[in-house]
Amino acid sequence: MTSDTLSVPAVALGTWAWGDSGRPGDGYFGSPLSESGLREVVEKAQGSGFTLWDTAVAYGMGHSETVLAKALAGYDRGEYALSTKFTPQLAGEGDDPVGDMLARSLDRLGTDHVDLYWIHNPADVARWTPPLIPLLESGRIKHVGVSNHNLEEIALADRILGEAGFRVEAVQNHFSLLYRGSERAGILDHCRKHGVRFFSYMVLEQGALTGRYGPGHPLPEGSNRAAAYNGILHRLQALTDRMGAIGGERGASAADVATAWAIAKGTTPIVGVTKAAHIDGLVRARAIELTGAEIAELEALADAADVDTRGWWEQEMA
């Protein structure tokens, strides 16, 4: 087993949107990304106790890792934790595709180890899990997680690692008020039972649960998220209105409530941050304690919306 226990803040910080084309201009969500602006994000996050940064080779084909390393420059390596991923679909043809991809990530991130290393997608669990063992033994990765895996795949990866004295210590799946497949499939219960940290991504559903958008104010046309969500915004109005009201009672926003709900479910939300102001929302969300009645009400409203936001890259969890 690894000598240290996986310890994480209340919220992890996602850098998917940092992996744009690498040219000056707009990031994926239309947010102007600059080196100084992202440095400000890092400084505010680190100062607020949000010190786990989640990235991946697949985010801009390594550009997110490079930009993140630059933004963290000057911080002691012990002051932050790095989470990145092996994506099977991007694997090379060499003798050790997993080790090779990690080596390139370490180079871009400017470090000799990754705190949390994920198998990004379950293309072939039996093939891609064993190569993690020598990386754990060498200390180049400290902890292993699996992303977008179902319960059977999680158990298989855990058995493979267990033969060498390691285990799956984290699961990262799409989980939000609108998409609770991992809960219904028993994955959250599995994680609680076995002391596995569950990381929830897309808790804000790419902005659809922030309260900023609705039938009269849709997401910007021409974007992938507009295509995915604008047609269902009218179904979400009752939910986002109630989230806004619950947040308003606490000096918070609907987005803060969506994040607080994910925390209340016992998960660690991964929230994308591109502006320093986003950190303020995470500070508010971390302090919100939703009542059982509020959680039940929000979930009932989400169920009544009757939408399916499963991504094209995701399999059914049940």
TrEMBL record:
Residues 11-302 form the NADP-dependent oxidoreductase domain. GO terms for molecular function: oxidoreductase activity. Pfam families: Aldo_ket_red. GO terms for cellular component: cytoplasm. Gene3D superfamilies: NADP-dependent oxidoreductase domain (3.20.20.100). The keyword Electron transport does not apply. Keywords: Oxidoreductase. SUPFAM superfamilies: NAD(P)-linked oxidoreductase. This is Predicted oxidoreductase. It comes from Actinacidiphila guanduensis.
